[in-house]
Predict the 3D structure of the following.
Amino acid sequence: LKEAEQILLDCLKIDKDQTNPKVIETNTLLAQVHYNLGNIEQAKNYINTVLTNNKKSTQGLLLKAQIDYSEGRLDDAIAGYRTVIADRPNAAELYIQLSEVYLKNNQKELSINTLKDAQKLLPDNGKIQIILSRLYIQDKDFVSSEDILKKFVETFPKDINGYVELAKLYAIQKKYDASEKQLLTYIDKFPDNVVGYIHLKNLHLVSKDTTKAIAAIKKGITAKPDSLMLNEELVKLYLSNKEHEKATALCLEKINANENPG
């Protein structure tokens, strides 16, 4: 980034006309570099230069909104994001960021509505759906959250996040059987993804069933016997369950296997 800054500064030496679109673009890039480096005051100086010469600079307005948010000027940040979104209506991340600002500003309904609007415009964006479902959970609207997540799983059947979020939703309501069913469904479809077994293990630990947690990891090891992650998880479970001999035996077994492959 420092090298990029120097290149941009050299460009400014060539043309000092601050109203030149290329110079405005260079100042905008310098603002972005300093923002990324955490040099907020310098970033603000460049943004001021940009907006003085082009009040409609979308990137300048976005950087200003991000800084306003980070410094607690939430109303200003909201206004900035709304202006930028009007110019970039298909930018999913902008809706997510605006929703976050609303939430920080204790405007939960507007936070939810922002993502609902985004969902209508960008129905295939899974990230928006996941975040919206979580906001519904915070609002104790479990029905709306479940509806969104079920549609997510239908739309993205290979994405583990939908199954995991549904499992968490059911677990929050202490519907552990329904929660387990979601994870097992994913595991049955994609047995080679070790993360599924980890989530299943975590669910059983939440419901304080160590035996089932161990069984979940063993199921994974059956499918992926060479998975270091799963074997480490099994060792940890044995140790937490005070089954030290089993933990030691498993470690020795893996050491011997590594020393004598094949």
In short: The mean pLDDT is 90.
